[in-house]
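Notes from the 1:1 (GR / supervisor)

We went over the backlog. Supervisor wanted to see one worked example end to end before approving the batch request, so GR pasted a single chain during the call. The sequence is below; no edits were made to it. Supervisor asked that the structure be written out right there so they could see what the output format looks like.
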Amino acid sequence: MDKTTQSQHIRTSVADTPEEILSAQHRIWMNKSIEKRLEMTLSFIDSCRQLNLNGIKNSHADWNDSEVKREYFNILYKDSFSETILNEIIKTLVK
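Structure output shown during the call:
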């Protein structure tokens, strides 16, 4: 997906934000250096990861950190690997 198509997709998928606000957000984002945008993107990814881990932990309060990581990995990659391969990978996460 090229950048223009990607921007249009984002704008149409966020239907509750007025167009002038989306445009202002986009201008602010694009005025940042590529390094700053990367830093912010990686921070966002880390925050999303932690939110997911916390959600799993809250749903399974009796699970230890390894079990939470295993479930997170399973949620992310269950459609990417065969069950056999997925289970082999998960074994390495639960040490």
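Supervisor's comment: The longest helix spans residues 34-59.
Batch request approved.
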